[in-house]
């Protein structure tokens, strides 16, 4: 699934815009310098001979040796090729230099970037980061501090950038743990405030939280008042750490605590894709408008997140959904990932379809299929049995919705609703010319949604 079949969009920041990891010289037989970037703004500097034919597997041995990562943890991390427009996890057999030469082709195929943006795109850089297929359950068994630090830095980056939406109790607790890891757990309240102000709030809480909504009441209260509130939250959570750990915890204990808290976020460890969904129609003038979303996919399920509001719009485990991918049939059409799940209309149980427009729809569909296959062959027979029982052949559990940013907001989605009466599938709202369509023959468990007659809906 990685590499030739799967790619993930990067945050379009300027942080890495001038990075380049792989030599562009055609003379690659002699030793060449290679930079492998890590989260936390650090990098491993290697000198490799025959760079044009060096595989990820060979590179991995060199990086693990340089970082002193134990051989018992070879699957925890993977190599990614990244640029401001695209992220791609590589397989062990891939040769990074050769993939760099194909980078523009990949950008044309899997992004909506203009020709000018693609022609000016930076050379991708190599990054050593978490393997998207590494189970969360194994992380807490890790004892090596170097490995835990690498996982921590990546998780922290995703929290602060807003890629992992979280509630106040989460970001305050995580921010306090970061402070304890950097400065130790023995600071008094005045020292805490001083350290936070030295390093700035965005070093401890998500950027959108530190900045605030910018609304009218926020302006009235003033920036200093908001900053004081956030500092107070961090100080309170920091105090709890000292009490719960007995004063002087080991770094490994704090790192495990941080990762454990991140594991409560269902999209921790996801691969992320970019796309758009239809906005709910609120009037004639607002028809056809779309909302930018981030789609996270991991071994547990699929999560559709609002890029602007930093909260989950829809979260589904694989046992709760069916899916399909459709390609453009005419110029101007979009690639679409279809997600089908259970819902309710005026008290009536219905099936709902969500359309996600993205040039990466094919990748997302393939990624879901691969995760389902991995899950079905894993050492968790209970989950496999649940998937078989609750797949396309039976009604899946209804989704629970509440105020947390990690919970689904199905009511805010513009979906297609329909019911299955055993003979035909009838669409409910809104009405359209073709009032029903037949369902394709299905496999006993996971299967694709028949979307051919819906694409004009």
> How many structural domains does the protein architecture include?
3
Q: Which band does the percent of strand residues land in?
A: 15-25%
Radius of gyration: 24 Å
Low-confidence regions: 1-18, 381-402, 427-449, 453-457
Q: Would you give the CATH topology of the largest domain?
A: PH-domain like
Shape-level CATH architecture of the largest domain: Roll
Short key terms for the protein model shown above:
457 residues, alpha+beta, Ubiquitin-like (UB roll), PH-domain like, six-stranded antiparallel beta sheet, 14 helices, disordered N terminus
Give a verbal description of the structure.
- The chain folds into three domains: 30-133, Ubiquitin-like (UB roll), CATH 3.10.20; 135-213 and 226-265, Up-down Bundle (Acyl-CoA Binding Protein), CATH 1.20.80.10; 271-377 and 402-427, Pleckstrin-homology domain (PH domain)/Phosphotyrosine-binding domain (PTB) (PH-domain like).
- It contains 14 helices and 15 strands.
- The strands form three sheets. It has a six-stranded antiparallel beta sheet. Strands 2-1-5-3-4 form a five-stranded mixed beta sheet, sandwiched between helices.
- Helices cover 33% and strands 21% of the residues.
- β11 (336-345) and β12 (348-357) form a beta hairpin.
- It has helices at 56-67, 96-101, 103-110, 115-119, 136-139, 145-161, 168-183, 189-199, 207-211, 216-221, 223-245, 251-263, 361-376, 381-389, and strands at 32-38, 42-48, 77-83, 86-89, 125-130, 271-278, 290-297, 301-306, 311-317, 322-326, 336-345, 348-357, 416-420, 425-427, 436-437.
